């Protein structure tokens, strides 16, 4: 609520990890899109914040602008295009601070002269919905790529907004929310808002779930919601700190390359003390340290669970690699070593009858052992 909290506020460990991830992803997205679309692209935030935290660390709008202005390889290619940055926040105090923070990032070019270099910035006070869509229309952002960062403190955004972004060419969405907010949905105290977020009333079946399963059930339902909105590729996971507090992050893209890049970004982030990732689908809900080669016990469980629901409980390994990429927080490249371990330990069988993992390739088929 505007006015109740101080501005700026303290960055918690999740925020630091989230920013490191944004920075890694934007440093990939920005050059690809600037080069691929003649710099005719938009970065938009519906919940922008003030651009700075109490310790002076930058907020997401500043991180985004820096990935363009601090990269000479792409900055110089923008002039004839027009990279748009759109920032909306409901709290006027954030809107008052943000230009000053962006101006520091734009130095030595004054903020109001950035447009002469092909960078258009719009900063406005208002509710993300409907304000964000209106500004995107005004600045002619539709019909060309938009990366929309919708960093809500709680309640997500409407299905309709996500759907509109998904229908726009080469566009992507990053939505963050607190899983506790889903518990509020679970308590069914805000049915109309829940219907808007999920786009229909099917989510209300949460009342039939056992109480310990409600939150995870809703997180998974939300993933399906983002897919139903038009994003075939979704990466969703929780950032969890040592106190067990978590932030749920959902990334939707229409292109598998976007998913691959976001996953690379996810595991390139430097370790942030006390924060790890959790896959909402992992039955054991294990928190993974952020490291280049993540610990794979949850991937083993996810592959075994996945095989359990496949016809004949079997799959070629190349399909399990795709499963890891599209349906888990793990990298495609990690599936093979997990399958090898599962074969060696007898938890998976090779269809060719070999008992060891020697000579195993992506083409081989593996299955769950036949239960006697
Ligand atoms: C999580 S903070 C944003 C943090 C920022 N994206 C960052 O990472 O630096 C959420 C922001 O949303 C704003 N906000 C809350 N409700 C809003 C609404 N309905 N529409 C637009 N902004 C809203 C708050 O004022 C707050 O600045």
- Mean model confidence by pLDDT: 93
N-to-C CA distance: 59 Å
Low-confidence stretches: none
Overall outline: globular
Rg is 22 Å
Query: What structural class is derived from the secondary structure elements?
Result: alpha/beta
Helix content: 40-55%
How many beta-strand segments? Answer: 12
Strand order of the largest sheet: 3-2-1-4-5-7-6-8-9
As for the number of domains, it is 2
Give the number of helices: 13
CATH top level label of the largest domain: Alpha Beta
How much of the sequence is in beta strands? Answer: 15-25%
Can you tell me the CATH architecture of the largest domain? 3-Layer(aba) Sandwich
H and E string: HEHHEHEHEHEHHHEEHEEHEHHEE
Bound molecule types = S-adenosylmethionine
Largest sheet data:
9 strands, mixed
Would you give the CATH topology of the largest domain? Rossmann fold
How would you describe what is shown here?
The protein is an alpha/beta fold. The chain has 2 domains: about 280 residues, Rossmann fold, CATH 3.40.50; about 70 residues. It is globular.
Q: How is this structure best summarized?
A:
This protein has 372 residues and is an alpha/beta fold. The protein is built from 13 helices and twelve strands. The structure holds S-adenosylmethionine (SAM).
Q: Topology of this protein?
A:
Blueprint: H1 13-36, E1 42-45, H2 60-69, H3 72-75, E2 83-89, H4 92-106, E3 119-125, H5 128-138, E4 146-151, H6 159-166, E5 172-177, H7 179-186, H8 191-198, H9 214-228, E6 233-241, E7 246-253, H10 256-268, E8 275-278, E9 288-289, H11 297-309, E10 314-316, H12 317-327, H13 334-344, E11 349-350, E12 365-367
Parallel strand pairs: 1-2, 1-4, 2-3, 4-5
Antiparallel strand pairs: 5-7, 6-7, 6-8, 8-9, 10-12, 11-12
Residues 2, 45-49, 59-60, 88-91, 94, 127-128, 151, 153 line the site of S-adenosylmethionine.
């Amino acid at each position: 609520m505007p006015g109740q909290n101080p501005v700026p506020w303290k960055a918690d460990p999740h925020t630091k990890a989230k920013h490191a991830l944004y920075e890694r992803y934007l440093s990939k997205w920005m050059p690809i899109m600037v080069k691929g679309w003649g710099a005719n692209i938009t970065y938009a935030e519906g919940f922008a914040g003030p651009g700075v935290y109490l310790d002076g660390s930058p907020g997401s709008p500043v991180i985004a602008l820096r990935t363009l202005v601090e990269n000479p390889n792409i900055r110089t290619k923008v002039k004839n295009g027009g990279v748009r940055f759109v920032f909306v926040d409901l709290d006027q105090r954030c809107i008052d601070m943000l230009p000053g923070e962006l101006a520091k990032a734009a130095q030595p070019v004054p903020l109001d002269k950035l447009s002469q270099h092909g960078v258009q910035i719009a900063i406005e006070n208002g509710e993300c919905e409907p304000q964000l869509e209106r500004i995107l229309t005004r600045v002619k952002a539709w019909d060309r790529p938009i990366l929309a960062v919708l960093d809500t403190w709680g309640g997500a955004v409407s299905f309709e907004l996500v759907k509109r972004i998904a229908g726009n060419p080469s566009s992507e969405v990053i939505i963050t929310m607190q899983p506790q907010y889903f518990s509020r949905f679970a308590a069914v105290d805000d049915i109309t808002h829940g219907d808007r977020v999920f786009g229909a009333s099917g989510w209300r079946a949460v009342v039939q779930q056992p109480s310990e399963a409600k939150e995870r059930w809703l997180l998974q339902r939300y993933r399906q919601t983002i897919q139903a909105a038009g994003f075939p590729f979704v990466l969703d996971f929780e950032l969890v700190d040592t106190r067990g507090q978590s932030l749920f992050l959902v990334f939707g893209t229409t292109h598998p390359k976007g998913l691959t890049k976001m996953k690379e970004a996810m595991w390139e982030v430097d370790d942030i003390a006390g924060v790890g990732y959790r896959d909402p689908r992992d039955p054991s809900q294990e928190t993974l340290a952020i490291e280049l080669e993540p610990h794979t016990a949850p991937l083993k469980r996810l592959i075994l669970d996945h095989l359990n629901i496949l016809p004949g409980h079997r799959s070629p390994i190349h399909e399990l690699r795709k499963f890891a990429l599209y349906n888990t927080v793990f990298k495609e490249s990690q599936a093979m070593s997990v399958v090898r371990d599962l074969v060696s330990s007898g938890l998976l069988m090779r269809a060719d009858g070999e008992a060891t993992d020697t000579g195993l390739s992506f083409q081989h088929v593996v299955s769950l052992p036949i239960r006697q």
